[in-house]
Amino acid sequence: MSYSLDVLKPHVHWLLRFSLASVFIYHGMGKLMDLGGFSQMMGLSIPVAALVTFAELAGGVGIIVGSFTNDLITRLAGLAIAPVMLGAIFMVHWPRWNFMPAENFPAGGMEFQVIILLIALYFLIVGNATENQNGN
């Protein structure tokens, strides 16, 4: 009998799905509870702030739901998340790479946001293909 991690391959996508979905559902709910405050803090109009909030919530939920439904939902969720992360990187965290906040940069750097962006792009490109592979 062989003990191999290969038996976990069809299920390991859940590690990425849960981490990505939890971040976006949490942040989207926070924005939804104070849309005006988010809008003012970021200097966005209410409609743009609402679009960002919707993209976060739809992206987070879509990453989970997509696994149970079809490839398109997963890809659309990744597509919804990517511009939100690009906005976070360029509007808030640029040009600092270091994750640690500093006195003159309390929001910290962009390494976390880059990782989240890359995970979203992974799901946009791969969709549900990881669940359908038989380990070959």
Could you explain the architecture of this structure?
This protein has 136 residues and is an all-alpha fold. The chain has one domain (5-128). It contains six helices and no strands. It has helices at 13-33, 35-42, 46-68, 71-93, 111-126, 129-132. Helix 1 packs antiparallel against helix 3 (46-68), helix 2 (35-42) crosses helix 3 (46-68) and helix 4 packs antiparallel against helix 5. The model is unreliable at 132-136 (pLDDT under 50).
Concise description?
This protein has about 140 residues and is mainly alpha-helical. The chain has helices at about 15-35, 35-40, 45-70, 70-95, 110-125, 130.
- When the domains are counted, the total is 1
Please trace the helix and strand order, writing H or E for each element.
HHHHHH
How does the major sheet shape up?
Answer: none
Please give the share of residues in helix. 55-70%
Structural class: mainly alpha
- Number of DSSP strand runs: 0
- Compute the gyration radius: what is it? 17 Å
Number of helices: 6
Mean pLDDT: 87
N-C termini distance = 20 Å
Strand content: under 5%
Looking at the structure, what is the overall shape?
globular
Low-confidence stretches: 132-136
